[in-house]
Write a structure and sequence with these properties.
By secondary structure, the chain is an all-alpha fold. Helix content is 76%, strand content 0%. α4 packs antiparallel against α5, α5 packs antiparallel against α6 and α17 runs antiparallel to α18.
């Protein structure tokens, strides 16, 4: 799975390269012919064209040859022929005085392919060059590159460098990536940085509050740092006296209450921290608050907290979550409203699920026409087995109604 994901990412990135150099017209024409063959399904002819030009002799600083070598390598990667691709990527890497951005992107690709092929040392060298060139030229250093570099250092048990790069990956990512957070947790644990490990464990529980392994992970850290009755009593006393001054103290106490299955107490702690301004009114804290209310089955307040999150984030998962809560509480109109908002924002996880839920809401509202529209969409997304019973229900209900009316 990792191999496929990495190489898909490399291939996508290859199509987005904006070179600082121009290729000659004959190279452009050749690449266009090869691409037309690929589009028409004639990959053999496309490869013959690529290979013919890639294997010719050019000067060591020929940008045209660099582009041909790189393009042929990407073609080979798309065919899962990594060993052959590496040979041409290396030839491209030997070219001299190439534009910095082209070299930058080539180093990224080399790093990913070396890593997938198990050549960790070569991958590390390529990624470090990628970081150096990107830093010197202020290019966009993608978090995926940092994360792979961190993984390499972790596999070599070089924990300081691993921590440096996984932190950069998480800090520069627009979304929370669980695998990266798990790696950061493991690194902090290896370095015996248990309070920092606890922060990561709490983030994982916040994102997946029902994940037992994350809860057990957090509990394990609590046990290591002996955060039990004495620590709890101290924080509770400070809370009552308004003596808690650090955000981490509120978050630790709130998470510990959740761990102890006291979600109402957890919510009160967060609410107080927000009211006093010790906790920032940000996505992380409001999401933690909503989780506490959801676990407590206080859905009105859970929705209130999630609506605050939607005002701070364009991530469709929060609107989807609100729609789910409304559906669970039989508020069909509001469920449809927020599920549609999620869809308009581009919600795409588990294709067909959102359409199924909207369809069910319309059925509950006795609006079979709109229900059929949504269920047809779910059907097209591969939800045939789940859609069919609802279609049968509507058919039988409508037949019964016609029989009664007749």
């Amino acid at each position: 799975m990792m191999k496929n994901l990495l190489l898909v990412f490399v291939f996508i990135m290859s199509t987005q390269i904006a070179s600082q150099e121009a290729i000659q017209q004959w190279v452009y024409n050749m690449l266009e012919r090869a691409q037309m063959n690929i589009d028409n399904g004639n990959t053999e002819q496309a490869e013959k064209t690529y290979k013919d030009y890639a294997d010719r002799s050019y000067s060591s600083n020929s940008y045209d040859h660099f582009v041909v070598l790189r393009t042929y390598a990407y073609f080979l990667l798309s065919q899962d022929r990594n060993t052959e691709a590496l040979a041409y990527l290396k030839k491209a890497d030997m070219k001299k005085r190439m534009p910095p951005y082209d070299v930058f992107m080539l180093k990224f690709t080399l790093g990913q392919v070396f890593y997938v092929e198990g050549q960790r040392d070569a991958a590390k060298e390529a990624f470090l060059e990628w970081v150096r060139i990107g830093t010197e030229n202020e290019f966009d250093l993608r978090p995926e590159g940092y994360a792979t570099l961190a993984t390499i250092y972790a596999q070599d048990q070089e924990w300081d460098d691993a921590l440096k790069y996984i932190t950069l990956a998480l800090d520069n990512s627009s979304i929370f990536v669980e695998n990266w957070a798990q790696l950061k947790f493991a690194i902090h644990t290896e370095k015996k940085q248990y309070m920092l490990a606890l922060e990561v464990a709490q983030d994982l529980v916040r994102v997946k509050p029902k994940n037992k392994s994350y809860i057990e992970q957090m509990a394990g850290v609590y046990n290591i740092i002996k955060f039990e009755e004495e620590s709890l009593a101290s924080l509770e006393f400070k809370l009552q006296q308004d003596l808690l001054k650090k955000p981490s103290e509120y978050v630790n106490l709130a998470n510990f209450y959740l761990y102890k299955k006291l979600p109402i107490d957890s919510a009160k702690v967060i609410e107080k921290g927000l009211k006093l301004g010790v906790l920032k009114n940000n996505i992380k804290n409001n999401e933690l608050l909503s989780n506490a209310y959801i676990i407590a089955k206080d859905f009105d307040n859970a929705i209130r907290a999630l609506i605050k999150v939607t005002q701070l984030s364009d991530d469709s998962k929060y609107d989807y979550r609100i729609g789910q809560i409304y559906l669970q509480n039989s508020d069909w109109d509001n469920s449809i409203k927020f599920l549609n908002i999620a869809r308009n924002k581009g919600w795409s996880s588990k294709p067909g699920t959102l359409e199924m839920l909207i369809g069910i809401c319309y059925i509950e509202l006795d609006d079979f026409d709109n229900a059929r529209v949504e269920l047809a969409k779910a059907f097209n997304f591969g939800k045939e087995d789940e859609v069919e019973p609802w279609i049968n229900y509507m058919d039988s209900t409508e037949n019964l109604r016609r029989a009664v009316e007749g």
